[in-house]
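Readers of this paper often ask what the protein records in our data store actually look like. The remainder of this section carries one protein's record, kept here as part of the documentation.

:::
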Amino acid sequence: MLKVYRNTAIFIILIMIGIQWGFYQTYTSEFPNFKNKTTTIHVHGALLMMWFVLLIVQPLLIHTGRAKLHRTIGKVSYVLGPLIIISLFMIGRSGYGRSVGVIPEPQNLAIMVLDIRGFLSFALFWALAMFYRKDSASHMRYMIATGILAIGPGVG
């Protein structure tokens, strides 16, 4: 079972690399002189990068037998999770607002549906992970699911 935790960290690192690659053209390549990027976008990115650091570090702590430290650091997710949920909502709202009158309304609504789907999925998986925190197998799977959700925006 301990091998699973190491492999989980590797899997999340691969997802994180894919996300960075996916956002390179539209975001990362503009560092440090970002053009037309709002504070909401920067905060959203920072929160999700912190989340991915947790998704990498936490299974490694279990793998190395430091469950107590895992639980201590895991308390951060009680603050970080809701902040990410709020940032996902804000990103969807601001994206819709920027596109009103620029693209046809049906297309704008279709994009918003994707944002809402990600927002609700993350909220659900995070809530289930917190609810099942004492059931390691379920907790781990729900936390991995929060990371898998980032593949779509990274590829998109």
